[in-house]
Structures
1.
Amino acid sequence: RENAAKHLPRLLKRYFKEGRSVAGQSPSPERLHLFRLSTKHVRYTLESFQAVYDSSFRDLIALLKDTQDYLGKISDANTTAQWLAEHLKGEDPGMQTLVKRLRADALQKSRKFSQFWQSHVETPGSTRRWEEYLKQPAVQTDERDAVGNKGETA
């Protein structure tokens, strides 16, 4: 509980700062991929502390999952375009058209991600609210154990 209150708000603050930077520019496919990995690591770290927070915690996890989904779709389009461009060089003019479409699709999805970030993550006060929320775990582990052991005999 103390570790969660001490470390998770700082982790989330750094994550939001990174996301703000990524969403506020036209990042490279590599930069988007790195942010996707950051999102994954932050989400999994937070999920490991889910037991010490109340049900509102699920909203934060859902937000991270949605972010990860957006970034995954961008990564899929970029990776496919890159793979096709490298492995099917000049073999088929239709493939070149497909690669261009995939890159355009990735760019469009990147713009949608930025819009998503601004409208769902970076809403006024939301990042600060989540940081403050993480400073106050809801239930102490020993309290939860005591409740879970109610009625049991040794």
Note: Residues 22 and 31 are 8 Å apart (CA to CA).
2.
Amino acid sequence: ILAWLYTSIDDDPSAARNAVRPMVATTLVTSRPILDQLELELPPHFSREMERGRWQLSRTVIEPASKLVPDELVDKLALAGTAAGCRDALAQLLTAVPEISGVVIVPFPTPSTSCEQLVSRFMTEVAVTTSGQAHQSGARASAKSKGLVADVRAR
């Protein structure tokens, strides 16, 4: 299993969550038919806002509605926060789903960081264990498309 993770890393965890929040909102909208299988519920205020916008995925509808997605739901659908918080969340995910053989991040930089900085922080501060080693022995890391996707997977 290859896990694709919306990812934002910032020393300000709120800024990181806000960076991924519109994509999380988009995911909630497009995943409505299976949210119950994922044991997720649409937040009522978010649903009402999306209903007003006729469930359109345009930026003018999604961005204001995304502000109504609570942090807890963002944390379930994205890897967002401080480097230490993201490292812990990634470790929990890899422990909970041992079948994951690789991780691809879809980076969402905050206003104070670049995509390249985010990918670099992921590689050096998140995709390592507390001993500084890669999560899996023999892991390789590469940045693709000028840092738009970081791919960390076992060989």
Note: The radius of gyration is 16 Å.
